[in-house]
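Entry 14. Ran structure prediction on the chain below.
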Amino acid sequence: MQQRKIGKDGPLSSAIGIGAMSFCNFYGPTEVSASHAVLDAAMALGVSHIDTSNVYGFGESEDRIGSFLKSRGQTAREHFSIATKAGITRNAQGRYFDNSARHLEAELDKSLRRLGVDCVDLFYVHRRNKDVEIEEVTQSLADLVKKGKTRSIGFSEIAPSSLRRAHKIHPIAAVQSEYSLWTRSPEMGLIQTCAELGTALVAFSPVGRSMLTDHPISDAKLETLPFLAGNPRFMAPNRAANLRITDQFRALAADMNVTAAALAIAWLLQSGNHIVPIPGTRSVTHFKELVQGADIMLLSDDLAAINKILPIGWAHGDRYSADQWIGPERYC
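Output, structure tokens:
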């Protein structure tokens, strides 16, 4: 497995990680045994980065990782680099963002208990509360490093300008953002800023929430997934248009004798040596397909063929609905 740094002076980690939102029921029902099977496969294949959050299944994802580490012992803990997040919470009025030092530390403490560890390798602010200056938030995170509760810090879905401000307070090891062949917005400054500062770009949804795989989510399955059912790219008429276009990508992958998912991962890995895709899956078979992307070396003709089929801006529909856009920072 290729190795990449998480942060300028950070430790080496696998070039592909695991997005552990799939360890709860966000994309459909799954069992503890299935999550553990994916983690066992990860150890066997050299995948060492796990990316989770306190809100994934209201702690269920972290619980499953914690029970795996407990059952597999010190070898598993030493193998994996664990990242988690906090900053999204709820009250009687609904969802809101809390970036206070008190909230972040309290939530990290809960995460540590669920994971069964004394310290995580990376702790992100999941969503920014604009009422708290990013310099203040960064200092709160830096204090958690000093306390030994996390080895490094990061942010999810922030703009390049915010990253620069934060980095002046404390080195930012990673920024998590959606990035794939159907979401290219990080190319408008975030990839470049991360590379300049030595920050890893942790790319979630690297296979387009199944659209860049051989088996996109079916109509029947889509109806059971509220987040995707309300996402503009999966709503009519956008979904049909996106399927027609990605059919060409699937055909190209077949001609290259690789899966579409592996090809999408390979494209990401060759977009920058500081980019770490974190695909999520409930299936060991699919996980192995994704990891194969690290073994594919794309030539200039291959990249040209991919970009001809999926040029920047090809996707129909915004990547988020109006409600889903609350929190992520837009930039240009």
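The chain has a mean pLDDT of 95. Will compare against last week's run tomorrow.
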